[in-house]
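Input sequence (382 aa), recorded before submission:
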Amino acid sequence: MSSQLAGKKIAIVGAGPGGLTCARILQRHGVQVTVFDRDVNEQARNQGGSLDLHTDDGQLALREAGLLEEFFRLARFEGQEMRQLGTDGTVQAQMLPEEGETSAPEIDRGQLRHLLLESLEPGTVQWDRGIARVDGPDDGPRTLHFMDGTTAEADLVIGADGAHSRVRKVLSDAEAYYSGVDFLEAWFDDVQNAHPDLAALVGGGSAGAADADGALFAQRNSGDHMRVYIVRRRPLDWMAQNGLTPDDTEGIRAHLLEEFAGWSPDLLRLISDNDGPYVDRPLFVLPAPHTWQPSASVTLIGDAAHLMPPVGVGVNFAMLDGCELALALVSQPSIGDALRAYEATMLPRSTELAVSLDGHADFLLDDGELPPELADRMGESA
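Predicted structure, token format:
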């Protein structure tokens, strides 16, 4: 362990992939760290769908964490297949992974989180420790105030607490705001047996269709599950405006089928044949560029630092952030030097993409050509 970290208390707020990656790499270098998370335990809530880890960010971070081979054992390489569908249900374009392709294999978010959690020393993560605020002098120690009224001190606080980060308030007045685009999630179980036509339509990975008003994106998950994301421009309170509630599955379904009237009946089954309720996931973003004055004791990683619409980089960037921050902490002469070195790389990287999006998610509904920055990141031809 580097001498400048000896005896220092390092707190990571948020047990997502970015925070856990940072903790794992620090522990591999002999650094003590505590992760605080608001969930009561690992199984407290569904962790979301499938994600792909790229060679130059997510996989790079797992290599530094000593977990790349374990990731490859869990990953679904067939999940790299992508299909672009027309609203008439025809396949307009298809990308099939070559034999041995490892550039972006898929893994369920919950499986990735479990892999990282299991790699940590026992007791590293303190569950049911939601943060209310962080205060204290910039040169430390900082005081973490928890929702239950307790406190803890830390010489370094790493905010990995997502879109509505409490740690971010120490560094920035920026608040996540609604992008105007809403994702409604539908789940499908036992896909090969219960939904064979949809399995054939989507293939082994993901498939999407879009017009100027809406989009459907289907994604195969492990365990023969599938998630479908129904994307529309909507006001944040669209359900209430239409007399709907989250538990009114039949009412929501009827509303969606009316919105997507004219699409192929085969595609409409991605809306109508789901197992269970819909889950509303409005897309929030941060103003771009999002920067802050350097601190000697607080920094941010992942969505807390650069919340953007889903362009295939969110978790990858978060894990790379955690990796680069950990390596800076064990190589730089002081915590302050480490934070400046990390932010000097992270902020330009995230800012370039965030500015190109300009806080919008409308490209998700665009059936035209993506901007080059997005095309490169999403694996399309620019």
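Checked by second reader. The CA atoms of residues 252 and 258 lie 10 Å apart.
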